[in-house]
Amino acid sequence: MEENNFVKVKAPIIGADGNVFNLIGICKRQLNKAGFESEAKEMANRVMNCGSYDEALVIMQEYVIPTSVNDFDEEM
After folding, report:
1. Contact at 8 Å (CB) between 55 and 43?
2. 73: helix, coil or strand?
């Protein structure tokens, strides 16, 4: 992550459809909403090039704070 002002954003991935492409989309959407477009692209590229589902989840958590879909207040 290049920018010094980057702050993790909340993403409702706990309890969401666990398909990795769905999770990438949720994380990208929340990052983009917060103005972190370059980080959203970077995260997606890293996830798409990683070797496992577990590694993908670890990478996503470098960019977002996982929250429950039941506790998430913002409309997606």
Report:
1. no
2. coil
**pTM recorded for the entire structure:** 0.87
Longest alpha-carbon distance in the chain: 33
Which one, of 5, 63, 55, lies nearest residue 30 by Cα? 63
Beta strands in 1-76 (DSSP E): 9-14, 64-68
In contact, 27 and 43? CB cutoff 8 Å: yes
Find out whether 26 and 65 touch, Cβ atoms under 8 Å: no
Q: What is the model's pLDDT at position 31?
A: 98
pLDDT tens per residue across span 1-57: 554 689 999 999 999 999 999 999 999 999 999 999 999 999 999 999 999 999 999
31 in Cβ contact with 9 (< 8 Å): yes
